[in-house]
């Protein structure tokens, strides 16, 4: 074995140094079905590269390739065939339809299985589909591509985090991770969005954003339940299995790609441009109030009479404040190998500057994968990925809030004086926070160094028995520096956040996260009876996760712009350690009968360090069945394939570390002069927690018609999570702010539909269309006795208009509660508003605010879906994707502020006197005319702060908006230069692509793009307004292969 | 093949049970925290926290309600009584009461009676802040972690608890003297001096008995007898002078200087001391705030916001040169001066005019001396402002208002006195038609303990506020 190993390493080295010696050649051929008919639109790819073509109407193709390359032929409903390129120039292929389908997909633990053998839905997207989206964050590339998968983001910021939820939210716990497990080349990796050091408001990345999408060969989506039962509790919310690109034997190929993208905000809120700075209609250039003054014309007259400077025209600072964003990404990859050893290495660099001033992000990634086949029995391989990522993460919430306060008579871009102090909007421009100055002087920069490595060994002593061992490491450090500049001179105009605890500040956060995974298993196959094949798999895995962090805060800088902790007068430090370990023993027994009936039973026992010792071990089973009906019964000839699948799984789940006891911690501010303080921890742990359990039932079918020209895939699922471990938020008078309890159950039921077809296939023109549809229904079944509701989160609104998300029994997750207009005849106990009831008008003539919060909307969409179209004409490919999300609401905090500050266009009626439609307390129609403005009305009555501040902004109902949308997610045109043009050149292939993302959006929502949430947590979905705005981007990409 | 399979399974079993011992998973004890805290540390946090809670009540609402301070912004909700909850103060107080609950519990278990006695006094003070600002509140089944939704004790019941806590603390003192000392520096108020704590307990008893002035339960004799066992000089004030960074009022002053506006003095307060409302100029004024650019003391009318630019010094603010807002200024819990005013008020009620006169003059003098007015100026002020020797309730509330500048206690006085201060008016654009009588419960209560939260408004009077 030893000499072989050395030889393997040597060959890799040789390959690294070698230059290309293989000649290029043009390969042509015809692809036919097993009935002899030519197949149109068959994908022909060169393995390990992004390049390929499709067959034309005669089933023929031509492709420039090299000796030693492998060509992969795939066609919906026909499976996949691969052929190695030798010296021949014509390669004809026959693909076998329907029953003999041998399409292989990656399943749990990275095990490849025939798709038809599976009793559950699996979807896969490949490198072309990923690259088409031009998303820098791999999670975003799944948007709209897979039924059951919902991707949301906190906006269009560089490196901004994204959130992915499969088949609905499974946990009542507001702090639970509801996202799937990510696995890269067999190693579970972190996709955490760590918000320590102030990252929550700073759109930090989810860690999968580190991965270069161009390194990814395919992503398989396992939607939880039976599909992930073998992975155990960490994949209870599903799993995304990422396989990276590998080298191919026989050829050294070099690929270079470069992309330039330019972006702008895709949707702005509308603002009124009539009324200027002041209050009660009186102009005041020193006023805090940006828009409660008179009209600009009136203000000018007033200024002239009072010797004030002439008021300006009003700027549209919502558009002014944002800029054009730019990004560049370059990737160079080299791959190759011989029959024994293969490798691929890539280096990539992304630089991205966002639309919000000073937001940027950089990512440098280096990856190498290598595999070595030592003998027929033994092979091994591994991969290492080093990533450095980070940038200045702006505080979009602060930025937009300050933009709302900013008086529109001044250009917000005029933000800094020559001496470095702030230009404000009040008091001769010496006060009033300038949001751009804020971003220029108050920064949050993260700097991640990450290593992901995996090694795998496979040993097959007999053809029927294989042992696999994988060990992996995912380790990263993240250094975050957050600082605010002190005042240039004492009392100099400055951004208020810079002065929160003295003159300027520095916060340094150093984090380290290390996950080690070890997994061993064996697979044994046998033919039990002539028609029955058996396969048995058993394995054991270990997961060891550790995390540590130190945050040091320094307040009151001596030198105002020296951002070193050494320069701070007051220093406070806080540290945190966290460890979690899991062990899992698992087994999987599968039978197939005549390639028509497939039965799999699995079992897994997990041991988790996070549960009390008595309850830390738990077992759970799964069973799944696949029936290939066309093998079993006679079907009409129009049906080319018909499968029914069904499965059941019960997955156990542990909890976060350190939730089993009551503890005491050192409060912020201590030590003080050598004295340490102690205080009871705010979360009450419980030493009798038991594991949660999610029971999933799934049934589905795959039907294909007209020789697989049309395919329909349908799934129904029902997942019930019981005994959920939740920190139930409590009144602080309990002595805690939350109690950890096994406190409830919740159900998700839904359907997933995927339709694929090829409507047009003419000589030169092919059209493929894919449609997916997802509908999920959630219900909170049970909450711990004595607890009426679980508080998930809230978002501030002026005058009591804060929106709250709470869970109550019998209602779905994500109901948005808030104040509303009182209705005549309504009860305090009504959960919902009866909109047919007339509005109740108070004795003062204004609508009455109902202060008991009612349900005003829900953050979970009724349904979502996408249509993806793909057109091919010779070397030209055109595709577009339309996504939609329907029946979803969102609290628009910006809307609340726009009404409070007289910015919304509807506040233009502020000088009108109207009669509100509705009834008074005695049930009679209201007839009282009231003035909508501030101060004294034309009727001589004092109206104080006016209708919008006194009434309108206090009704959350006005700001919980429909956030449905339809968008043109992606349009892409690519052109591959004809091979004939490149003959006799050292260049192998050249393609050009232009992509547009988010070019068109249709939504009733009044703020920025409603896709953006306040953040990435469970408590953020449904809250929007002051988010990083969504962007529309156009990309230009050049790919060159050598 | 079967033998292969069994070998294979044996290997797994071995790996599981030998390679990973049972203790491999015993790592769930949180390495960042303690399960049993040092009691000195609990006391350190709770004693400092108690003083800070006074500032959160004051800066969060009470100083605006009594018009010590005014918002620089027009129509600010605190200034105009718009649904004020001050949840931050509520949460801070309950956090400290939780630690005091544990301190009493663990101290009794460990026989650390000094800690127990001090904790009971601090508990009484915090409970006083809760009941005097919000009214009824959870106490008798709070803090335990057993009750998910603690029920509310009535305000009367809470007052009974305050008196019980103070009595128990006083009764415990002799026994406490024989128990281990408190760690140096861990008692932020008196550094472990039980004599001073005993005086503070009596002074507090006098305060809470005196709060009942409008009720039938009022017993001026009991107030006077408690006061006799209270403080004997302003050097005995219950106050904190060490902070995490600086006195929180100094933070307000520094932020304001950095244009994060706050700590603006109200026109009401300035007028009361600058010769406008009353003829005599109070010598304390220059020691509390700044003159504006024109060399005048200018307050801001509540509800109206700033008249000037907000950046030029057009008004008077809390400044770090001010006595109560300097970096290490004492943050008071209860003072000798307050006790003297309490004594004077009870003496008046007990028809002991002479004692009232003496206590009144001593209260004013102590307040002045403490903040740095020299004694001749104090005497001159008293002689000029009060020519007769028969102090009235109005005199008393007028002077107590100035002497207790920034204290949350003044809002209790204001309500007992029915806001009858000279020239005291509703703020411009008030959201209520009359002065507020309490703040409303914070969102954490209405959201998480809805079934127990009493239905009240800012105009629902507390039990001691009967007229």
Give an overview of the whole structure.
The complex is a heterodimer of chains A (1042) and B (467). Chain A contains ten helices and 54 strands. Chain A is mainly beta and 1042 residues long. Chain A has a 22-stranded antiparallel barrel. Chain A is globular. Chain B has a domain at 39-238 and 435-448: Serine Threonine Protein Phosphatase 5, Tetratricopeptide repeat (Alpha Horseshoe), CATH 1.25.40. The relative contact order of chain B is 0.14. In chain B, 49% of the residues lie in helices and 1% in strands. The mean pLDDT of chain B is 92. Chain B has a two-stranded antiparallel ribbon with strand order 1-2. The chains are: A mainly beta (1042), B mainly alpha (467). The interface between A and B is large, with 103 and 86 residues.
Task: Outline the secondary-structure elements.
The complex is a heterodimer of chains A (1042) and B (467).
Chain A: H1 2-17, E1 24-33, E2 43-46, E3 52-54, E4 60-66, E5 70-75, E6 79-84, E7 93-95, E8 104-106, E9 112-114, E10 122-126, H2 127-133, E11 149-153, E12 162-166, E13 181-184, E14 187-189, E15 216-222, E16 239-244, E17 253-265, E18 278-279, E19 282-283, H3 296-305, H4 317-320, E20 325-337, E21 341-353, E22 360-373, E23 378-390, H5 396-405, H6 435-441, E24 442-462, E25 465-484, E26 505-529, E27 532-557, E28 568-593, E29 597-608, E30 617-628, H7 629-632, E31 639-653, E32 664-665, E33 679-680, E34 683-684, E35 692-705, E36 710-722, E37 725-729, E38 738-742, E39 744-761, E40 765-783, E41 789-795, E42 803-808, E43 815-821, E44 849-858, E45 863-873, E46 876-886, E47 889-892, H8 893-900, E48 913-915, E49 929-931, H9 947-950, E50 960-962, E51 965-976, H10 979-982, E52 989-1002, E53 1023-1024, E54 1031-1041
Parallel strand pairs in A: 1-7, 13-16, 34-38, 47-53
Antiparallel strand pairs in A: 1-4, 2-3, 2-5, 5-6, 8-9, 10-15, 11-12, 13-14, 15-16, 17-20, 17-54, 18-19, 20-21, 21-22, 22-23, 23-24, 24-25, 25-26, 26-27, 27-28, 28-29, 29-30, 30-31, 31-35, 32-33, 35-36, 36-39, 37-38, 39-40, 40-45, 41-42, 42-43, 43-44, 45-46, 46-51, 47-50, 48-49, 51-52, 52-54
Helix pairs in contact in A: 5-6
Chain B: H1 2-19, H2 39-65, H3 87-110, H4 113-134, H5 155-176, H6 194-210, H7 220-228, E1 238-240, H8 248-257, H9 267-273, H10 285-288, E2 331-334, H11 336-349, H12 353-371, H13 375-385, H14 393-403, H15 409-416, H16 443-448
């Amino acid at each position: 074995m030893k000499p072989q190993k050395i030889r393997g390493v040597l060959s890799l080295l040789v390959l690294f140094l070698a230059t290309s010696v293989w000649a290029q050649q043009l390969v042509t051929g015809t692809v036919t079905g097993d009935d002899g008919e030519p197949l149109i639109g068959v994908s022909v790819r060169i393995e390990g590269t992004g390049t390929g073509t499709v067959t034309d109407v005669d089933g023929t193709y031509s492709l420039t390739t090299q000796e030693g390359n492998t060509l992969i032929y795939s066609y919906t409903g026909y499976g996949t065939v691969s052929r190695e390129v030798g010296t021949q120039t014509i390669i004809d292929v026959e693909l076998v339809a329907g029953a003999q389908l041998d399409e292989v997909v990656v399943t749990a633990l990275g095990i490849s299985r025939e798709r038809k053998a599976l009793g559950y839905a699996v979807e896969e997207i490949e490198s072309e589909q990923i690259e088409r989206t031009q998303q820098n964050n791999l999670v975003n590339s799944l948007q709209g591509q897979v039924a059951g998968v919902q991707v949301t983001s906190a906006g269009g910021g560089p490196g901004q985090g994204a959130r992915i939820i499969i088949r609905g939210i499974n946990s009542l716990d507001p702090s639970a991770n509801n996202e799937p497990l990510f696995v890269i080349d067999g190693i579970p990796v972190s996709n955490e969005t760590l918000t320590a050091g102030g990252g929550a408001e700073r759109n930090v990345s989810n860690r999968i954003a580190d991965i270069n999408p161009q390194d990814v060969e395919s992503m398989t989506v396992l939607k939880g339940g039976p599909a992930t039962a073998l992975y155990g509790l960490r994949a209870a919310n599903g799993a995304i299995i990422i396989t990276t690109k590998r080298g191919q034997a026989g050829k050294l190929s070099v690929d270079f790609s470069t992309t330039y993208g330019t972006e702008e905000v895709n949707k702005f809120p509308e603002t009124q441009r009539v009324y200027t700075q002041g209050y009660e209609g009186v102009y005041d250039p020193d006023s805090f109030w940006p828009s409660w003054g008179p009209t600009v014309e009136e203000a000018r007259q007033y200024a002239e009479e009072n010797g004030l400077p002439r008021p300006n025209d009003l700027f549209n600072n919502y558009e002014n404040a944002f800029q054009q964003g730019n990004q560049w990404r370059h990737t160079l990859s080299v791959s190759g190998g011989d029959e024994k050893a293969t490798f691929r290495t890539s280096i990539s660099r992304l630089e991205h500057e966002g639309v919000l001033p000073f937001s940027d992000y950089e990512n440098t990634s280096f990856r190498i994968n290598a595999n070595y086949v030592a003998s027929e029995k033994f092979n091994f391989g591994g991969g290492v990925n080093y990533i450095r990522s980070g940038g200045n993460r702006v505080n979009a919430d602060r930025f937009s809030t300050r933009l709302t306060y900013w008086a529109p008579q001044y250009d917000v871009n005029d933000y800094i004086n020559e001496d470095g102090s702030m230009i404000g909007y009040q008091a001769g421009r010496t006060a009033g926070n300038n949001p751009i100055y804020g971003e220029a002087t108050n920064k949050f920069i993260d700097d991640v160094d990450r290593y992901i490595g995996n090694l795998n060994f496979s040993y097959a002593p007999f053809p029927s028995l294989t042992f696999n061992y994988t060990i992996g490491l995912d380790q990263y450090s993240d250094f975050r520096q957050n600082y605010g500049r002190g005042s240039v001179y004492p009392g100099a105009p400055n951004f208020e956040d810079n002065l929160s605890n003295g003159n300027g500040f520095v916060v340094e956060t150093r984090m380290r996260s290390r996950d080690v995974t070890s997994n061993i298993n064996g697979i044994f196959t046998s033919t039990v009876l002539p028609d029955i094949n058996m396969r048995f798999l058993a394995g054991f895995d270990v997961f060891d996760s550790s995390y540590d962090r130190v945050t040091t805060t320094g307040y009151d800088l001596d030198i105002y712009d020296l951002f070193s902790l050494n320069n701070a007068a007051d220093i406070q430090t806080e540290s945190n350690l966290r460890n979690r370990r899991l062990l899992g023993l698992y087994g999987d027994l599968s039978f197939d009968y005549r390639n028509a009936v497939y039965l799999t039973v699995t079992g897994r026992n997990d041991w988790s360090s996070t549960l009390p010792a008595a309850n830390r071990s738990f077992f759970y089973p799964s069973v799944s069945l696949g029936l290939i009906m066309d093998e079993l019964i006679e079907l009409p000839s129009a049906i080319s394939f018909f499968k029914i699948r069904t499965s059941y799984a019960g997955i156990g789940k542990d909890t976060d570390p350190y939730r089993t006891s009551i503890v005491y911690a050192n409060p912020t501010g201590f030590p003080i002069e050598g004295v340490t303080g102690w205080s009871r921890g705010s979360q009450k742990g419980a030493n009798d927690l038991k594991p949660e359990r999610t029971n999933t039932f799934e049934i589905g079918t795959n039907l294909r018609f007209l020789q697989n020209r049309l395919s329909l895939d349908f799934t129904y699922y029902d997942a019930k999570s019981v005994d959920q471990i939740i920190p139930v938020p409590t009144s602080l008078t309990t002595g805690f702010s939350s109690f950890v309890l096994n406190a409830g159950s919740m159900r998700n039921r839904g359907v997933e539909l995927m339709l694929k077809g090829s409507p047009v296939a003419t000589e030169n023109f092919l059209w493929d269309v894919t449609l997916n549809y997802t509908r999920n229904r959630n219900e909170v079944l049970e909450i711990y006795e004595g607890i009426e509701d679980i508080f998930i989160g809230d978002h501030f609104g002026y005058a009591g208009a804060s929106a709250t998300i709470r869970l109550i029994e019998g209602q779905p997750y994500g109901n948005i509660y808030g104040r509303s207009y009182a209705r005549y005849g309504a009860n305090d106990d009504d959960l919902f508003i009866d909109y047919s009831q007339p509005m109740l008008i108070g004795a003062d003539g204004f609508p009455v605010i109902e202060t008991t919060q009612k349900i005003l909307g829900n953050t979970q969409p009724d349904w979502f879906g996408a249509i993806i179209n793909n057109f091919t004409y010779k070397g030209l490919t055109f595709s577009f994707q339309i996504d939609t999300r329907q029946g979803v609401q969102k609290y628009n905090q910006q809307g609340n502020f726009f009404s409070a500050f007289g910015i919304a266009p509807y506040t233009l009626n502020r000088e009108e006197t109207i009669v509100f439609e509705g009834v008074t307390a005695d049930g009679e129609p209201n007839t009282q005319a009231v003035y909508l403005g501030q101060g004294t009305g034309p009727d001589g009555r004092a109206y104080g702060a006016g209708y919008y501040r006194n009434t309108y902004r206090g009704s959350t109902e006005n700001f919980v908006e429909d956030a449905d949308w339809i968008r043109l997610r992606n349009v892409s045109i690519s052109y591959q230069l004809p091979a004939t043009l490149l003959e006799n050149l050292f260049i192998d292939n050249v393609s050009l692509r232009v992509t547009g993302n988010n070019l068109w959006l249709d939504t009733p929502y009044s703020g920025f793009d409603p896709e953006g949430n306040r953040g990435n947590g469970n408590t953020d979905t449904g809250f929007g307004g002051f988010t990083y705005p969504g962007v529309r981007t156009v990309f230009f990409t050049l790919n060159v292969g050598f | 093949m079967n033998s292969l399979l069994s070998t294979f399974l044996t290997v797994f079993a071995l790996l599981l049970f030998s390679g990973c011992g049972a203790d491999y998973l015993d790592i769930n004890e949180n390495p960042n925290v303690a399960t049993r805290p040092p009691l000195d540390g609990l006391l350190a946090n709770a004693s400092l926290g108690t003083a800070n809670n006074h500032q959160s009540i004051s800066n969060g609402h009470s100083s605006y309600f009594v018009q010590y301070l005014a918002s620089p912004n027009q129509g600010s909700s605190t200034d105009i009584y718009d649904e004020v909850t001050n949840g931050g103060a509520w949460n801070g107080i309950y956090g400290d009461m939780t630690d005091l609950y544990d301190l009493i519990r663990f101290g009794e278990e460990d026989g650390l009676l000094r800690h127990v006695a001090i904790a009971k006094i601090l508990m009484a003070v915090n409970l006083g802040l809760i009941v005097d600002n919000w009214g009824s509140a959870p106490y008798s089944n709070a803090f335990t972690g057993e009750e998910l939704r603690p029920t509310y004790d009535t305000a009367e019941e809470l007052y009974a608890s305050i008196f019980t806590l103070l009595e128990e603390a006083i009764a415990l003192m002799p026994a406490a003297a024989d128990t281990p000392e408190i760690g140096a520096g861990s008692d932020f108020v008196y550094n472990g001096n039980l004599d001073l704590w005993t005086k503070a307990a009596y002074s507090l008893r006098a305060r809470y008995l005196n709060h009942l002035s409008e009720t039938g339960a009022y017993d001026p004799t009991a107030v006077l007898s408690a006061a006799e066992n209270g403080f004997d000089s302003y050097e005995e004030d219950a106050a904190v002078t060490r902070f995490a960074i600086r006195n929180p009022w100094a933070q307000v002053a520094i932020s304001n200087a950095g244009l994060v506006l706050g700590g603006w003095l109200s026109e009401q307060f300035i007028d009361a001391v600058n010769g406008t409302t009353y003829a005599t100029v109070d010598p304390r004024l220059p020691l509390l705030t700044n003159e504006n650019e024109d060399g005048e003391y200018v307050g801001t009318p509540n509800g109206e916001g700033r008249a000037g630019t907000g950046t030029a010094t057009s008004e008077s603010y809390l400044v770090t040169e001010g006595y109560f807002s300097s970096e290490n200024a004492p943050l008071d819990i209860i003072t000798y001066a307050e006790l003297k005013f309490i004594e004077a008020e009870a003496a008046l009620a007990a028809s002991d005019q002479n004692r009232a006169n003496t206590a009144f003059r001593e209260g004013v003098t102590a307040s002045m001396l403490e903040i740095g007015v020299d004694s001749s100026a104090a005497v001159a002020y008293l002689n000029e402002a009060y020519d007769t020797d028969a102090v009235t309730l109005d005199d008393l509330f007028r002077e107590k208002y100035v002497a207790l500048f920034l204290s949350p206690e003044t809002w209790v006085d204001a309500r007992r006195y029915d806001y009858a201060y000279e020239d005291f008016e509703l703020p411009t654009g008030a959201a209520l038609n009359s002065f507020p009588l309490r703040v409303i419960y914070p969102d954490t209560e209405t959201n998480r303990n809805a079934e127990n939260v009493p239905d009240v408004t800012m105009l629902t009077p507390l039990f001691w506020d009967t007229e």
